[in-house]
Each structure stands twice: as C-alpha cells, then as structure tokens.
Specification:
The complex is a heterodimer of chains A (102) and B (192).
Chain A (H helix, E strand, L loop, with lengths): L7 H4 L1 H10 L2 E5 H8 L3 H13 L3 E7 L8 E7 L1 H18 L5
Antiparallel strand pairs in A: 1-3, 2-3
Chain B lengths: L8 H12 L8 H12 L6 H21 L4 H16 L16 H19 L1 E3 L3 H27 L6 H29 L1
The chains are: A alpha+beta (102), B mainly alpha (192).
Chain lengths: 102, 192
C-alpha cells in the first residue's frame, strides 16, 4: 500500500493555498497572489519566505515602470522541488478525502 | 490571579495582534485563528479537513480566474500590428518585380514587447496556453496571410484604397482571436 507523503512545510493551510495558485502558472505577481488569497502583505510575505527557505518557491524582483518610487514587482513561481512536494501533498489529501480515507 | 506565561504560543499571537502590527497591516481575525491553528496542527488531517483543503484550492483558483480581465487594449496592439502588415500591401507592387515587405523582425519584436506588457499588466505568466489558444494563434496567422493576399489582389486591380477595408478586417479578426486565445489560456488555469 502506498504511503501518503505529507510535507510539513506545505501542510500549513495558507502555504498549501499559495502553492495551489502557483502550481498551474509559470509565475504570478505577489500582488495578484495576495488579492486571490485575500490576505495581508505581511501574512503572505511570512509564508512566502518560509516556502522560499524550503526551496519550494522562487522569487524574482523586477523594477516597475508604473511606480514612481523604488518598489518592485515580485514574481513568484514554484520550483521543481516545490511542484513535486505540492503534487505529493495533494495526492495524500485526495487519498484521505476519498472513499476509504480516514 | 494566574500568572501569564509570555512564551506561551497563543499568548504571543495575541500580543502581536494587539501591539506590534500597525492597523494598516493588521491581518483579519480569521487569518490569525487560521495561522494559530496551522502552526499548532501538523498532524495528519481528518477526512473532512482534507476535503476542505482541496475545496479551498479549487475556490482559490476560481477566485483567481474570475479576477483576471482580458487586456483588450494590449491585445489591440496585436490587431494594430496585423492591420499594419496587411496595410503594407497597399505600397507593394504585385507582379514580376514584387518584393515582400521586410517588417518581419520588427513585427516579431512588437509581438514580444506586447506579450511582456500583458504579463506586467495582468501579473500572470501562463505555463501553457492550451490547444484552443494555439488554434486561435494559427487562425491569426492564416487570416492575416489570406487578407494580405486579398490586399495584393486588390492593388493589382488598381484598387489600393480597398486595402483599408482588409486592413480593418485584419485588426478586428486579430484582436478578437487574440482575446479568444487569452480566454482559453485562462480556462486552462481554471482546470489546472
């Protein structure tokens, strides 16, 4: 019987949701992700930093021509390791939620 | 009176919520309860919790898809490029001395710049655009080639003014097909 593989980093609900939104895209703007999750900048930053430290999320900052100050657009994407860990985690959830799950 | 332990997790969360974070950045109460729950619960979820987590993933994706607006203004840039190319047939001289317009490199540069601007505008770069979007992109190329050929025919019949019509048709068809391609790519995102 296959053992479900939980990832402790992704297990946190918000981090799971972040990975869930990054999974089908190549990359996503931090502001778009924040709006989709309906969370504050600080909350999202904290969890992105955790995912970044785990090597699951890659961030890339570029200058924004639309902004007069020094702020930049932060692009976020899942690394190959992040995609693999997320897929395994979702499979584990599906296994639990499906018929015969506990 | 019971002594308060400042190192107790729940206590710290409450203190941060009350005193450290400025009101402008204060997360919702719901977020705090979620954060506290997720930090303390690293056990295997129950069946209901797992189902809820999967439903949340679907709901987030739907919210993201519904928040995406088709960038028609930028897509009209593709229409303008197509109109320009088809319109260039008006200055061509069909026949033995025909020389095709040499705007290929410039057109490619404009396509790439508009694609980059669309990403910046929408904040999304798609991993794949899907079969329907590829079909729409092929439709753009085919319709532009057909309209360019028709334009050359019109010029050879001493009707260069009619190229304005084919040029307008190229603008409309390319913009519409580019919009269809974008919507198709968004649908792919919805399906995951």
């Amino acid at each position: 019987m296959d053992e479900v593989r939980f990832d402790e980093v992704i297990h946190a609900p918000l981090r799971l949701r972040i990975c869930g939104l990054l999974r089908p895209v190549d990359r996503l703007d931090f502001a778009v992700l924040r709006a989709a999750l309906d969370v504050s900048d600080a909350t999202l930053s904290k969890h992105v930093k955790t995912l970044n430290a785990a090597g699951y999320v890659v961030s890339d900052k570029v200058a924004s021509a639309n902004r007069g100050d020094a702020r930049r657009i932060m692009w976020l994407s899942l690394s190959p390791a992040g995609r693999s860990a997320f897929d395994d985690h979702v499979r584990a959830l599906q296994k639990i939620a499906g018929p015969g799950g506990t | 009176m019971a002594e308060v332990n400042p190192f107790k997790r729940g206590c710290c969360v409450r203190r941060i919520a009350r005193f450290t974070i400025s009101p402008g950045h204060l997360p919702h109460r719901k977020e705090f309860s979620t954060l506290a729950a997720m930090e303390s619960n690293s056990q295997r979820p129950s069946r209901d919790e797992a189902a809820k987590a999967l439903n949340d993933l679907t709901a987030d994706r739907e919210r993201l898809v519904h928040s995406i607006r088709v960038p028609w203004l930028l897509l009209a840039g593709y229409g303008g490029l197509a109109a320009w190319w088809v319109g260039s047939a008006a200055t061509a001289s069909p026949g033995e001395n025909y020389e095709p317009p040499t705007i290929g490199g410039l057109a490619l540069a404009v396509v790439l710049v508009v694609a980059y601007l669309i990403q910046r505008e929408t904040g999304i770069r798609f991993r794949s655009i899907g079969f329907r979007a590829m079909l729409a992109a092929t439709g753009i190329v085919v319709s532009c080639l057909a309209l360019f050929s028709i334009s050359l025919g019109l010029v050879s019949m001493d009707m260069p003014w009619a190229v304005a019509i084919t040029s307008a048709m190229a603008f409309a068809s390319t913009t519409w097909l580019a919009g269809a391609a974008y919507r198709s790519a968004v649908e792919i995102l919805h399906r995951g």
